[in-house]
C-alpha cells in the first residue's frame, strides 16, 4: 500500500495529489439500489489508522524532474499544510467509559482501524441500518439477522431430530413387542426384528440437514437468477417451504403478513427514526487514539472542556479499578490500565487490529487488518510479571508480587481449550512491571519501562506427532 | 530432516483436526474389541467401525443388548489368557546398592562414581539384566564392561508393568544361598507393588515423572533422561545480555541530520512528542509504515538475541528432564541425537500456579534456538508465529492426569504486519458448513 500509489510519469508536471480524505460512509458506499452482494471492504477500510497519509512522489535517479516533483510536494505542504481531523469523544466518569456520539466520527473510527463497539450492535455500529431493515425500509440482511435466522433454523432441525429419534424408539419398541407376541421366546428373533428396525430408521443428522438446506438454497438462488424478471420470485419461495411441516409454513405466512402491515405503519413516520446508538471506546483504545495518534480529544462530560493527555492518562489509570480510585490517590506502577495499555500499544504498533477478547475469555484478539477481512488468529491473555529485583527485596513485596501473578493451571487449561475449540492460537503475554519510579510528566518514558514478552501455548497431543 | 517433517505435519493437519478427533477423550465402545483378530481369529480385515452414540437411555431392548454386548466384549478381552513364552522371559535382579563400583571402593554408595564404572552406567540404575534379549534393550538400559545391562528405575518399572521383565529380589535380601551362577533360580520374584515401592522415589523418579515416561513410552516414543533430571544439579550463573529490544533512536551523522531536516519539513512545529503525545505528531505523514515505526515504544523480547542457557541453570520443576525421540528416529544409546521434544514435568499439587516469567524464560532459554524454517513457514506468517523460535513441552500432571502443553517463544515484533505482505486481501469467505464459527 505504501509506495504503490504514484510513480510520476516523466514529462508530466507531477503535482502530488493527496489521497482523498476519508469521509463519511455515505460517500464511500454505493447507493443501495441494485444491492451489491457485499460492501467493498477493501475500499471502505483502506486506511489502517484514522490518520491521513500523503505520499511523496518517489525519486528516480536518472530523472532529475522527479527531484523537482518531490521538492514541490514538500513545498506545497510547507505552505499549506493539509488539515488533519481531530475527532471528539467524551468521558463519562459514572460508567468509566468513553463515548462517541457524532455519527461521522463513529464511522471514521470504525472504518479506519476498527476502534470501538456499537452500543446496540454486536460489533460494528450498525444499529440504524439494522433497524431500517427490520422495519422494511431497506433491502438486504444484516449480520445479526443472518445469525438469528441460522440459529432458528438449527433449533428447528434439532427439534426434528429429537422427533425422529423418538419415532425410532417407538418403532423399535413396537417391533420388539410384536416379536415377543409371535411366541418365539428365544432372543434370536427379537434381535432379528430389532436389526430390521435399525435398517429402516436412519439416524437423523442435523449437520447433514443443514448442508442439504444450504445446497437447496443455492440451487434456488441460481434458479432465481435464471428466471429473474420474467416471474415473481414468490412462487419459488413457496415451493421451498412446501416441504416444511404445515405448522411452520402457516407461522411463516402469519409473520410475513404482520411484517407487511408493520412496514406500512412505519412508512408513515419515516423521519422519526433517529440513531439511538453510540460508539463505545475502551480506555486503551481511547488513550491510543489520543496519545499515540493525536486523532482524538476527550471532553469531560460535565464542563465540556477537553482533557489534556497527561491528566487523561492518570484519569484512566484511576478508573481502571472498581470502584474508581479518587483522583488524589497515588498511581500504582501496576495499574490494570498500564499493563493492558502496554500490550495494546505493542500490538497496535506492529499493525495488528486489537479488539477485546472477552467473548473467548481472553484479554485481546488480534485481527490481521480487521474483523471484516479475517477471523482473529490469535487470542492474547495478559499476565503481569514482577521480575525486577525491586519486587523481591522485601518479604511483603514478594508476597504482593506472587499474589498478583498467580494463575491456576485449571484456569490456563480452561482458556486453552476454549481457544482450541474456536481455532485460535493462545498467546500468553507477560508484561514485566518495572520498579516504581517518581511519576514524571513523560508518558513515553513511563511506558517504555514496561517490557513485553509473548509465548505461544497450545496442547501437544503425543499421538499426533509420532509421524 | 525430522524437524521439517514434523513442522509440516504440525502446521497443517494436526491443528485442523486436533479438536474433532482426539480419541483419548472419547468414551470407548468396547465392542470394538470383538473385532480384534486375536479374539475372533476370523479373517475379517479392515478397521472396525465405530457405531452411533446413544446419548440417553431408552426402554428398548436393543439398547440394553448393545450395552451388554459391549460389556461382554470388554470382559472377553480381559479374560483372554495372556501367555508368556518362557523363551522370551527376561530375568532381572534388583540391586538396591546400584551398579557395583570398581573393586577398590566399598559398595553402599551410589553417587558420583560413573567415572570408574566405565563409560555409561548411571549411578541411579538399580536393576540389572544378566542375559538381555529382545527389542526393548535397543533403546533402554546401559551396558557395563561385562555386558550386563543396567536399567534405570523407570525403565525397569515400565518393563515390569508391561510384562516384559521379571525382576527378582537379590539373594542378599531374601537370604538365599549365595551360590554363584544360579542366583536367578533361587531368588524370589518381585511383585508389582513391591517394585513401585522400591523404584518410585529412587534417583529422582517421582510418580508424576513415571506417569509421563510410561505414557509416552507406551505409544512408541524413545525417551532418555536429560541433564536436568537431577533437581540439585546446578550450573554457575552466567552473565546474560538483555534480549529486549530498545525503541529506535535517531542516529547522529549525515543521515540523522537529513532525517531531522525532513522531519522539520513534515512537522514544522515539532508536535511529535512521546512525553505528552501525540507520539506521531500533528504533522504530515508520508506513509503508514513510518507511523507504525514511530509508534514502536514498548521494548519486546527478541529470542534470537538471547544466547543459549546452560540447561542446568534452571530451577526445578521448570527444567527439561526428558528428551523424547520419535519412534522412527534411529537412536544409538551411546551417541544420542538431538531430541525431537524436550519435556519438563510439573505436578500441579506442588507448583499450583502457572510459571512466572523468569521461570518460563529460563526454561525456554535452556533449549536450543529452533527458528521457523522451510518453504511453508516462509510463506505463511501465522505458521511462523505458531512455531516460534524456541519451544519446550510442559507435561502438567494433576493427580495422574497429564496434559501436555507446547510452549513456544514467539516474537510478534519480528513480523511487521504493517508492511502488509501477508494480509488477507478480500472479505472473509463465510459459509456455515465449511468452517466452524470462529469470530
Automatic annotation (TrEMBL), chain A:
Q: What's one Pfam family here?
A: tRNA_int_endo
GO terms (molecular function) for this protein are:
nucleic acid binding; tRNA-intron lyase activity
Question: Which sites are catalytic?
Answer: 367, 375, 424
User: What EC number(s) does its UniProt record assign?
Assistant: 4.6.1.16
Keyword Phosphoprotein found: no
Q: Which GO terms describe its cellular component?
A: cytoplasm; tRNA-intron endonuclease complex
Record keyword Cell membrane present: no
What are the tRNA intron endonuclease catalytic domain coordinates in residue numbering?
337-432
Q: Name one GO biological process term.
A: tRNA-type intron splice site recognition and cleavage
**EC main group:** lyase
The UniProt annotation puts the region (Disordered) at: 1-41, 216-244
| Annotated keywords | Coiled coil, Lyase, tRNA processing
Where is this chain compositionally biased, Polar residues type?
A: 220-244
What start-end ranges are recorded for coiled-coil regions in this protein? Answer: 143-179
**Which family does this protein fall into?**
Belongs to the tRNA-intron endonuclease family.
Instruction: Quote the function comment for this protein.
Output: Constitutes one of the two catalytic subunit of the tRNA-splicing endonuclease complex, a complex responsible for identification and cleavage of the splice sites in pre-tRNA. It cleaves pre-tRNA at the 5'- and 3'-splice sites to release the intron. The products are an intron and two tRNA half-molecules bearing 2',3'-cyclic phosphate and 5'-OH termini. There are no conserved sequences at the splice sites, but the intron is invariably located at the same site in the gene, placing the splice sites an invariant distance from the constant structural features of the tRNA body.
Q: Which named protein is this? A: tRNA-splicing endonuclease subunit Sen2
Q: What is the lineage of its organism?
A: Eukaryota, Fungi, Dikarya, Ascomycota, Pezizomycotina
UniProtKB/TrEMBL annotation, chain B:
Q: Which InterPro entries match?
A: tRNA_splic_suSen54, tRNA_splic_suSen54_N
The record's annotation in Pfam families points to:
tRNA_int_end_N2 (PF12928)
Family membership: Belongs to the SEN54 family.
Domain of life of the source: Eukaryota
According to its UniProt entry, the protein's GO biological process terms are: tRNA-type intron splice site recognition and cleavage
Q: Which residues form a coiled coil?
A: none
Which intervals hold domain tRNA-splicing endonuclease subunit Sen54 N-terminal? 75-169
Q: Per the record, which residues fall in region Disordered?
A: 97-117, 419-439
Q: Can you say what this protein is called?
A: tRNA-splicing endonuclease subunit Sen54 N-terminal domain-containing protein
Which keywords, in A-to-Z order, does the entry hold?
Answer: tRNA processing
Q: Name one GO cellular component term.
A: tRNA-intron endonuclease complex
